Every structure is written in structure tokens, then in C-alpha cells.
Amino acid sequence: SQTIHQWPATLVQPVGSPLSLECTVEGTSNPNLYWYRQAAGRGLQLLFYSVGIGQISSEVPQNLSASRPQDRQFILSSKKLLLSDSGFYLCAWNRVNQPQHFGDGTRLSIL
Amino acid sequence: QKEVEQNSGPLSVPEGAIASLNCTYSDRGSQSFFWYRQYSGKSPELIMFIYSNGDKEDGRFTAQLNKASQYVSLLIRDSQPSDSATYLCAVGPSGGSYIPTFGRGTSLIVHP
User: Fold this and answer.
1) Which residues of A touch B46 (CB under 8 A)?
2) Are residues B49 and B35 in contact, defined by beta-carbon separation less than 8 angstroms?
3) Is residue B97 scored above 80 in pLDDT?
4) What's the pLDDT score for residue B43?
5) What's the confidence (pLDDT) of residue B96?
């Protein structure tokens, strides 16, 4: 069966510091991968998605970036965090026309 | 712009009652529909999905599609306090896209 791992679970970072969140999928190959952000009490905001190694599409212009160095690895990064980057970050995977499956999420707080 | 609309709630039902959650969608070509449950502070968990060829029942949960009116519903029978959560509706894309569109979710409260 397929599983998705996301870490860390919680993170507290100062404004201006860098960020790296990692997500890996096991038990499948060539998944579609996604990064979402969910602000408190709000819906899911799609940040990035990828259909293959090195292929990244951005939905929202901001100071975040994503990379997919391996087939089942998806990384969310920032060089300098802003206060507005606080939120609940979710990684997800799926195949075309199949439901998405989410990782446990990372709760990011910026001080 | 593809849209999925849900009443934010909260929808409050007594324990043992049927909870009915609905969402409407704008993309008439959508073929797949998903329901997620999200407990406070947790990630969304897939509970049901259906395709345009019919409704589906799984235990206490039933997902129904009305293509003509472009809405999908989730019925929860014999509601339990543990069903209290936010329910997200997601609609699969049509055409060349593969990214589902999520609603903002409906908060369900099941009181004893």
C-alpha cells in the first residue's frame, strides 16, 4: 500500500530564516505531488504541483519554491520567511482522476 | 474559474440523526467527486469518492450525485459525536487538467 510521509510535524521559525519541508511517498511510482497551505479556519490553497522529476508548476507567486529531486520526493523551500507564511502545510499525492491522499501536515509558526 | 461551494456551517445534529452535507460545483464536465473529513488540527482524510456513473454507500456514509443540478451530497447515518469535524468536498477536473478543486468545507457538530 501507498504511504506519504511529511516532516517535521511542527516548526517555529523567526522571520527571515530559511525553510525546508520534505515529503516522500512510498509504494507507488511517478505520482502527482502537491503542496497546499491552509490558514487557520480557511480552505486549502494550492501552492505547487509536480507531474514528474524536475517539473514544478506554481499556482501562487510568493517567496516559496518547490523542487522534486527524485520521483517520490517533494520539497518546499524558502530563503527568507515572512510572517504571512505561517500556516498548516500539506503535501498530497494522487494519480490522474484518483483522489488525493494527504500527509500529516506541518504546522509552521513564524515569530 | 472552477468553483466548489459549501455552506460553512456549523451544521448541528443530535446523536443518531442523519447529517446531510452538500456542495455545488461549476464545472459541468467533472467526472469525479471526493469527500474528506478533517478533524481540528489534522490533515484531510479521504472518506468517500464517486464517479459520475452512480452513487455509493459505505457503512454509515452515502455519497450521491445530481449531475443535472451540479451538486453532490454526503449523508451520514446514525451520526456520532466522533463524526464532528469539517467535511471538505473536492471535484475532479475535466479536460486536460488533473488538479481537483476543493470547497472550503462544512463544519459538522454532532451533540450527544
Assistant:
1) 99-101
2) yes
3) no
4) 96
5) 67
